[in-house]
Amino acid sequence: MTQHRLSDVEVGKNYKAKELDSFVSTTDVLVLSNNDSQLFTEPEREYKVVDAFEGFFEHSSEDGEKYFREKKAYVVEKV
Predict the structure, then answer these.
(1) Which domain of life is it from (predicted)?
(2) How far, CA to CA in Å, does 72 sit from each of 30, 47, 49, 56, 79?
């Protein structure tokens, strides 16, 4: 099987689920999808990267505080 390794994705471009799977597996990122938990269930399904952020706020259940995490986050929608 051919490897589909991506080191980066671009807003506005389409990618197959198997390409995004490889990207997430090799890069420290967060991916939000409108396809619920089925993002990687159909390897050939295409997704469009619709937005990217340099980080996000996360609530800590340990101390109740909110922290900004500097971790690239991408929003994808199924095409």
Answers:
(1) Bacteria
(2) 6, 18, 13, 8, 22
